[in-house]
Every structure is written in structure tokens, then in C-alpha cells.
Design brief:
The protein is an alpha/beta fold. It is built from 9 helices and 7 strands; from the N terminus they run E-H-E-H-E-H-E-H-E-H-H-E-H-H-H-E. A 7-stranded parallel β-sheet has the order 3-2-1-4-5-6-7, with helices on both faces. Helix 2 (43-55) links the parallel strand 2 (35-40) and strand 3. The model has no long low-confidence stretch (mean pLDDT 94).
Length: 270
């Protein structure tokens, strides 16, 4: 029986596709018959995801480039068109944080490193806007396409310490809404732009903030779990349902939304 999401044969590009969340998204879509292009900075990391998808019977291709480089994004756009003739889904999963853009427990805003802050802002917001600009041109010509941005629990409720990350993810929410209006009003209802706002998922960039080397919760980790009604961190698979919903025609009248997948963190108070 065909999947209710009816995505077989669609073509998707996932930036940051070798990361924990991006690679899982690529796998989930490939299992639905989506042809996936995995974008990352290094072939070795990207190839791991591509090989895993192929081992499961899916179709995947590695594409290497920097989401901050317009020429490289345009070259990748040409590769996708040469191979498949179209693009249906763009997932902007590239992003991250840097220590110098984070305020430590014994630091203040005056200790912020400007170069680190700039890199975090560039990666998270420009690294979403630029690929959207380049690849949505295909959607405008096709009159159809899905864009999914990755927001964060820190976008709506700014978290202590992560000033650069929180600011850039708040910008993602704003851009998601703006771009949804821009594309639908000019090119029709077939183009939708939404965002997923994960809560706290353990990754390499935040592991030391949330867990001790022994795997126990740090003081910050304890605070987060105490404010998460479901009482746990997220795992990549928790995003699967929302991802498939937003990629498919099941959400064909949904655009400009930010959907939280946070175990209730955003609803929790004292």
C-alpha cells in the first residue's frame, strides 16, 4: 500500500545533511521514496549518510558546498537539475553555535567574541536565507515546492548564555513567515514555507553543556528537564511526523508556521 504522505519520486535537498538531525531527516524521506541530495562541507561525513540510505534501498547523492557561498549553491542547483530536472523540497538544516558566542557561567556580555558571534549569525540566518534564495528560484518557475527551516526552542524564549544562537534562530522564525508570504503571494499556493522548532536534542555542539562526561545531567541539563513536562531530551525520530506532514500535501494549506517539537518546554512555566 502506498504511503499516505505520497512523496515517492519527489526530490529533496537537505543542507547540513550529515548532522544528527539533517541525516535523520534524509533517511526518513528516503524511506518514503524521496530522492535525497545531502549537502555538507566534507565528502567523508556526507558519504556516511548517503551510504546508509543506499544500504536501505534509497536513492541519495552527496553534494559538497558552503551554504554561505552563492556560487557553490548555484552550482549544486545545476547538478540537481541535470540529474533530476526539478527540486521539490528544501530543508535548511545547516546551523550551529560556537563557544565564543556563548556567555559562560562566570562571564558577561562584554566577554562575547565578535568574530564567533558573527560566524554564528552568518551560519544560522544567512546560511538559511542564501540557499532559500538560490533554490526557491526553481520553485517559482515550477509554481510548487516546500521549504522547511529549522528554528529552536530558544527563538521564542531566549535562553541564558546562548545569545548568538537565540538571536539567529529568532530571525529564522521571522524569515520563515516573511518568505511564506513572499512566495505564495507572487508564485501561488503551491509553494509553502514552514519551520520546525526542536526542543533540546543532544548533539555534539551542546553535549558538554547538558551532560557530564559520565552521562549525568549538568546543572543546565537539570534545569531544562525540569522545564520539559515530558521529562526527557528529544531524539531525532521525534521530528519524523512533523517533517512528513510538512513535506506532503497533508499540509497543503499550511504555510508561515513554526511547529514546536519540544516535549512541552515552550508551554512550561512556574
Amino acid at each position: 500500500m502506498d504511503s499516505i504522505f505520497n512523496l515517492k519520486g519527489k526530490v529533496a535537498l537537505i543542507t547540513g545533511g550529515s548532522g544528527i538531525l539533517g541525516s535523520n531527516m534524509a533517511e526518513v524521506l528516503s524511506k518514503q521514496g524521496v530522492i535525497t541530495f545531502i549537502l555538507g562541507r566534507t565528502l567523508e561525513k556526507v558519504q556516511v549518510t548517503v551510504d546508509k540510505i543506499k544500504s536501505q534501498g534509497g536513492k541519495a547523492f552527496p553534494v559538497i558546498g558552503n551554504v554561505l557561498n552563492q556560487e557553490e549553491m548555484e552550482a549544486i542547483r545545476n547538478i540537481i537539475i541535470e540529474k533530476n530536472g526539478r527540486l521539490d523540497i528544501l530543508i535548511n538544516a545547516a546551523g550551529g553555535n560556537m563557544p565564543g558566542a556563548t556567555i559562560g557561567p562566570d562571564q558577561a556580555i562584554y566577554d562575547l567574541k565578535k568574530d564567533h558571534l558573527q560566524k554564528v549569525l552568518d551560519l544560522n540566518i544567512i546560511g538559511t536565507i542564501l540557499p532559500t534564495q538560490v533554490f526557491s528560484e526553481l520553485f517559482a518557475k515550477q509554481k510548487s515546492g516546500v521549504i522547511i527551516n529549522i528554528s529552536s526552542a530558544s527563538a521564542e524564549r531566549p535562553l541564558t548564555r546562548v545569545v548568538g544562537y537565540s538571536s539567529s534562530k529568532a530571525a529564522i522564525d521571522n524569515f520563515t513567515k516573511w518568505m511564506s508570504v513572499e512566495l505564495a503571494s507572487k508564485y501561488g499556493e503551491g509553494i509553502r514555507v514552514n519551520a520546525i522548532a526542536p526542543g533540546f536534542f543532544i548533539g555534539e555542539q551542546n553535549r558538554a553543556l547538558l551532560l557530564t562526561p559520565e552521562g549525568e545531567l549538568t546543572p543546565r541539563g537539570i534545569k531544562i528537564i525540569d522545564h520539559t513536562p515530558m521529562g526527557r531530551f528529544g531524539v531525532p525520530e521525534d521530528l519524523n511526523g512533523v517533517l512528513l506532514f510538512l513535506c506532503s500535501d497533508m499540509s497543503k494549506f499550511v504555510t508561515g508556521t513554526i511547529i514546536k517539537v519540544d516535549g512541552g518546554f515552550g508551554a512550561s512555566s512556574i
